[in-house]
Design brief:
By secondary structure, this protein is α+β, with helices and mostly antiparallel strands. It is 19% helix and 36% strand. The chain contains four helices and eleven strands. The strands form two sheets. Strands 2-3-4-1-5-8-7-6 form an eight-stranded mixed β-sheet. It is globular and about 40 Å long.
Length: 225
Protein backbone atom coordinates (compact mmCIF):
# COMPACT_ATOMS: atom_id res chain seq x y z
CA UNK A 1 0.00 0.00 0.00
CA UNK A 2 1.30 3.44 -0.94
CA UNK A 3 0.39 6.84 0.48
CA UNK A 4 1.85 10.33 0.19
CA UNK A 5 1.26 13.83 1.48
CA UNK A 6 -1.21 15.45 -0.92
CA UNK A 7 -2.27 18.80 0.49
CA UNK A 8 -2.43 21.01 3.53
CA UNK A 9 -5.79 22.44 4.57
CA UNK A 10 -5.70 26.04 5.84
CA UNK A 11 -9.14 27.08 7.05
CA UNK A 12 -10.44 30.63 7.21
CA UNK A 13 -13.61 32.31 8.45
CA UNK A 14 -14.06 33.71 4.93
CA UNK A 15 -12.25 32.98 1.69
CA UNK A 16 -11.35 36.65 1.24
CA UNK A 17 -9.69 36.62 4.66
CA UNK A 18 -7.80 33.49 3.63
CA UNK A 19 -6.50 35.10 0.43
CA UNK A 20 -5.35 38.20 2.35
CA UNK A 21 -3.60 35.97 4.91
CA UNK A 22 -1.87 34.05 2.13
CA UNK A 23 -0.57 37.20 0.45
CA UNK A 24 0.52 38.78 3.73
CA UNK A 25 1.97 35.72 5.45
CA UNK A 26 3.32 33.64 2.59
CA UNK A 27 3.92 36.32 -0.03
CA UNK A 28 1.88 34.41 -2.63
CA UNK A 29 -1.49 34.95 -4.26
CA UNK A 30 -3.44 31.69 -4.45
CA UNK A 31 -4.88 30.54 -7.75
CA UNK A 32 -8.62 30.20 -8.29
CA UNK A 33 -10.12 27.02 -6.93
CA UNK A 34 -13.78 26.13 -6.98
CA UNK A 35 -16.86 25.20 -4.97
CA UNK A 36 -17.78 21.95 -3.24
CA UNK A 37 -21.52 21.47 -3.54
CA UNK A 38 -21.60 18.52 -1.14
CA UNK A 39 -20.26 20.58 1.74
CA UNK A 40 -21.16 24.18 0.91
CA UNK A 41 -17.51 25.26 0.88
CA UNK A 42 -15.17 26.91 -1.59
CA UNK A 43 -11.42 27.21 -1.92
CA UNK A 44 -8.33 28.78 -3.45
CA UNK A 45 -5.20 26.75 -4.20
CA UNK A 46 -1.46 27.29 -4.02
CA UNK A 47 0.98 24.86 -5.59
CA UNK A 48 3.83 23.70 -3.38
CA UNK A 49 6.90 23.50 -5.60
CA UNK A 50 9.72 21.02 -5.22
CA UNK A 51 7.50 18.02 -4.50
CA UNK A 52 5.30 15.91 -6.72
CA UNK A 53 1.59 16.81 -6.73
CA UNK A 54 1.37 18.78 -3.48
CA UNK A 55 -0.50 21.98 -2.72
CA UNK A 56 -1.97 24.23 -0.05
CA UNK A 57 -5.75 24.61 0.06
CA UNK A 58 -7.38 27.71 1.50
CA UNK A 59 -10.85 26.56 2.55
CA UNK A 60 -13.89 28.39 3.90
CA UNK A 61 -17.63 27.95 4.19
CA UNK A 62 -19.36 29.49 1.18
CA UNK A 63 -22.05 31.84 2.55
CA UNK A 64 -23.87 31.74 -0.81
CA UNK A 65 -24.27 27.96 -0.85
CA UNK A 66 -26.07 25.33 1.17
CA UNK A 67 -24.54 21.82 1.34
CA UNK A 68 -26.28 19.28 -0.87
CA UNK A 69 -25.32 16.76 1.80
CA UNK A 70 -28.54 16.76 3.80
CA UNK A 71 -28.69 17.46 7.52
CA UNK A 72 -27.78 16.08 9.99
CA UNK A 73 -24.67 15.20 7.94
CA UNK A 74 -21.90 17.70 8.64
CA UNK A 75 -19.35 19.56 6.54
CA UNK A 76 -15.90 18.06 6.20
CA UNK A 77 -12.89 18.89 8.40
CA UNK A 78 -15.00 19.95 11.43
CA UNK A 79 -16.05 23.18 9.70
CA UNK A 80 -19.45 22.98 11.45
CA UNK A 81 -17.81 22.68 14.86
CA UNK A 82 -18.50 25.85 16.93
CA UNK A 83 -15.13 25.66 18.68
CA UNK A 84 -13.23 25.63 15.40
CA UNK A 85 -15.35 28.44 13.99
CA UNK A 86 -14.67 30.58 17.05
CA UNK A 87 -10.95 29.84 16.80
CA UNK A 88 -10.84 30.95 13.17
CA UNK A 89 -12.67 34.17 14.03
CA UNK A 90 -10.37 34.87 16.97
CA UNK A 91 -7.02 33.80 15.55
CA UNK A 92 -7.48 34.08 11.80
CA UNK A 93 -6.65 31.54 9.08
CA UNK A 94 -4.56 28.57 10.19
CA UNK A 95 -3.59 25.04 9.18
CA UNK A 96 -6.15 22.63 10.60
CA UNK A 97 -5.62 19.39 8.73
CA UNK A 98 -3.89 17.55 5.93
CA UNK A 99 -4.87 15.04 3.28
CA UNK A 100 -3.00 11.90 2.20
CA UNK A 101 -3.15 10.57 -1.35
CA UNK A 102 -3.57 6.81 -1.67
CA UNK A 103 -3.74 4.47 -4.65
CA UNK A 104 -6.49 2.28 -3.16
CA UNK A 105 -8.77 4.21 -0.82
CA UNK A 106 -10.96 1.23 0.05
CA UNK A 107 -7.95 -0.81 1.11
CA UNK A 108 -6.50 2.05 3.18
CA UNK A 109 -9.86 2.59 4.87
CA UNK A 110 -10.11 -1.12 5.68
CA UNK A 111 -6.68 -1.04 7.33
CA UNK A 112 -7.75 1.79 9.60
CA UNK A 113 -11.06 0.14 10.42
CA UNK A 114 -9.09 -2.91 11.56
CA UNK A 115 -7.18 -0.59 13.92
CA UNK A 116 -10.42 0.76 15.37
CA UNK A 117 -10.26 4.04 13.42
CA UNK A 118 -13.33 4.91 11.36
CA UNK A 119 -12.44 7.56 8.75
CA UNK A 120 -16.01 7.57 7.45
CA UNK A 121 -17.48 6.32 4.18
CA UNK A 122 -15.81 6.90 0.84
CA UNK A 123 -17.61 9.70 -1.02
CA UNK A 124 -17.33 10.61 -4.69
CA UNK A 125 -16.98 14.30 -5.50
CA UNK A 126 -16.11 16.49 -8.48
CA UNK A 127 -15.87 20.07 -9.74
CA UNK A 128 -15.23 21.71 -13.09
CA UNK A 129 -11.81 23.17 -13.96
CA UNK A 130 -10.43 24.86 -17.10
CA UNK A 131 -8.82 21.53 -18.04
CA UNK A 132 -11.90 19.41 -17.50
CA UNK A 133 -13.74 17.68 -14.72
CA UNK A 134 -11.76 17.16 -11.51
CA UNK A 135 -12.90 13.99 -9.77
CA UNK A 136 -11.90 12.37 -6.53
CA UNK A 137 -12.95 9.89 -3.86
CA UNK A 138 -12.51 10.92 -0.24
CA UNK A 139 -13.26 9.67 3.27
CA UNK A 140 -15.56 11.94 5.27
CA UNK A 141 -17.33 10.97 8.48
CA UNK A 142 -21.04 11.69 8.80
CA UNK A 143 -20.23 13.99 11.73
CA UNK A 144 -17.46 15.69 9.74
CA UNK A 145 -14.95 15.04 12.51
CA UNK A 146 -11.19 14.81 12.10
CA UNK A 147 -9.25 12.15 14.02
CA UNK A 148 -6.36 12.88 16.41
CA UNK A 149 -7.19 16.61 16.54
CA UNK A 150 -6.74 16.88 12.78
CA UNK A 151 -3.35 15.19 12.70
CA UNK A 152 -4.53 11.94 11.13
CA UNK A 153 -5.05 12.75 7.45
CA UNK A 154 -8.18 12.40 5.43
CA UNK A 155 -7.73 9.85 2.64
CA UNK A 156 -8.15 10.84 -1.00
CA UNK A 157 -7.86 9.04 -4.33
CA UNK A 158 -7.79 11.22 -7.42
CA UNK A 159 -9.27 10.48 -10.83
CA UNK A 160 -7.44 11.26 -14.06
CA UNK A 161 -6.55 14.90 -13.25
CA UNK A 162 -4.75 16.19 -10.16
CA UNK A 163 -5.32 19.85 -9.11
CA UNK A 164 -1.62 20.66 -9.40
CA UNK A 165 -1.86 20.10 -13.17
CA UNK A 166 -3.80 23.38 -13.45
CA UNK A 167 -1.77 25.44 -10.96
CA UNK A 168 1.12 27.80 -11.81
CA UNK A 169 4.41 27.57 -9.88
CA UNK A 170 4.28 29.54 -6.63
CA UNK A 171 7.90 29.59 -5.48
CA UNK A 172 6.67 28.18 -2.17
CA UNK A 173 8.18 24.91 -1.00
CA UNK A 174 7.12 22.57 1.77
CA UNK A 175 10.22 21.65 3.78
CA UNK A 176 8.65 19.68 6.64
CA UNK A 177 5.37 18.69 8.25
CA UNK A 178 5.72 18.18 12.01
CA UNK A 179 3.13 16.41 14.14
CA UNK A 180 2.77 16.23 17.92
CA UNK A 181 0.09 14.37 19.84
CA UNK A 182 -0.42 12.80 23.29
CA UNK A 183 -1.32 9.52 21.51
CA UNK A 184 1.65 9.60 19.18
CA UNK A 185 2.15 5.82 19.20
CA UNK A 186 -1.38 5.15 17.93
CA UNK A 187 -1.12 7.96 15.37
CA UNK A 188 2.20 6.64 14.08
CA UNK A 189 0.81 3.12 13.80
CA UNK A 190 -2.04 4.42 11.65
CA UNK A 191 0.33 6.39 9.40
CA UNK A 192 2.65 3.42 8.97
CA UNK A 193 -0.25 1.08 8.21
CA UNK A 194 -1.20 2.95 5.02
CA UNK A 195 2.39 3.27 3.83
CA UNK A 196 3.27 6.88 4.64
CA UNK A 197 7.08 6.96 4.60
CA UNK A 198 9.15 8.94 7.07
CA UNK A 199 6.37 10.96 8.73
CA UNK A 200 6.09 10.33 12.45
CA UNK A 201 4.57 12.25 15.35
CA UNK A 202 6.26 12.96 18.65
CA UNK A 203 4.49 12.59 21.97
CA UNK A 204 3.48 16.04 23.21
CA UNK A 205 0.54 18.42 23.20
CA UNK A 206 -1.45 18.18 19.96
CA UNK A 207 -0.05 20.53 17.31
CA UNK A 208 0.45 20.73 13.57
CA UNK A 209 3.58 22.47 12.34
CA UNK A 210 4.31 23.39 8.73
CA UNK A 211 7.77 24.52 7.62
CA UNK A 212 7.85 26.37 4.30
CA UNK A 213 10.27 28.45 2.24
CA UNK A 214 9.21 31.07 -0.29
CA UNK A 215 12.61 31.55 -1.93
CA UNK A 216 13.43 34.50 0.33
CA UNK A 217 12.84 33.29 3.83
CA UNK A 218 11.81 30.32 5.94
CA UNK A 219 8.22 30.39 7.15
CA UNK A 220 6.70 28.42 10.00
CA UNK A 221 2.98 27.87 10.51
CA UNK A 222 1.59 26.13 13.54
CA UNK A 223 -1.78 25.45 15.09
CA UNK A 224 -2.77 23.95 18.41
CA UNK A 225 -6.35 22.68 18.73
Amino acid sequence: MNAAFDHLVVAAATLAEGVNWCETTLGCTPAPGGAHALFGTHNRLLRLDGAERTYLELLAINPAARPTRAAPLKRWFDLDDPTLRERLLARGPQPIHWVARVDDIEAARAVWLAQGIDPGPVLTASRETPRGLLQWRITVRDDGARHFDGLLPTLIQWGGIHPVATLPPSGLQLRELSLSHPRAAALNAALAAIGLPGLRAREAEASLGVHLHNGRQALHLSATP
